[in-house]
Amino acid sequence: MKHKQIILDVDTGLDDSLALMLALKHPDINVLGITTVSGRVSAEQAYLNTIQLINRLDTHERPPVIKGSGEPLLNRFPIATHQAHSTEEQLHRILDGSSVEYPVLDEHAVTFMINTILKNAKPVTLVLMGPLTNFALALKVAPEIVDYISDVIVMGGAEGKGNITSVAEFNIYCDPEAAQIVLGHPDLNIHLITLDICQNAFLTEEDLETLLENDQSTSQLALKILQGITNQFRNVYAPISGAATLLYAMDSELLEGEMAEVSVETGSPLTRGMTVINRESYGDGHVFVPSDIDHQRFTESFVRTLVGEWL
Ligand SMILES: [Ca+2]
Question: 242 C-alpha vs ligand 1 centroid, how far in Å?
């Protein structure tokens, strides 16, 4: 019996692809659904990327994939899709863009999230890897869902330097109002996996060799995606943040950290989307913010999950 009930919210480019692969290959994860949001790519493109990716994996899992929000809550700034790395186009080439037959669910992602959380027999864990628009809307429309949510794992924010402005991380910058609704919620168990920690989530050449030697289609596809990420960062040890976020959802000992106060800047045009993280909050912190990653544990569970060696 798969014990972890997960909804993934994604803007599927290269990074989120690896997380999706891990989620679908992990023996203990029941993927209840995958919702898409505009971020690195549009919600529509994220939907297409996701179903094409699933179609290429050596798994029979076919969870619902549902299109979500196409723009941020307040469109004060244009959605940052156009600022996405052009290397995300590599994913299209890797997946070859051919059309895929996939069960269609005629529902909005926000409705799907609410209904799934409310009707699922067990509490649901949310793993949010794009701008937080969908989940913020779900919280506003149906605040009672918080009672049925186990944990909310958010990939986003930066304690140090940002990656879209000097102070803001991409996912939070795309929709700071949504991020504040989610990260400021007092009754959720939130874990914020920031850029800082993700810098140390990388594979070694030895790990890549292990994948290379494994001839399953998932391992080979993962290698192509890792190559794409490596090109983007021009570095063999390129961070794979989505993978770290997903694996942390399954193994809390992967990351060390503490409770902190977290607020999102929504006012100042200069620092919009900045996450202000106060670790010296003397017990008032409501968000778990990691400060270290167990690198060996990370690479081992990444490789094992992909090649299916959980014994
Ligand atoms: Ca993402």
Answer: 7
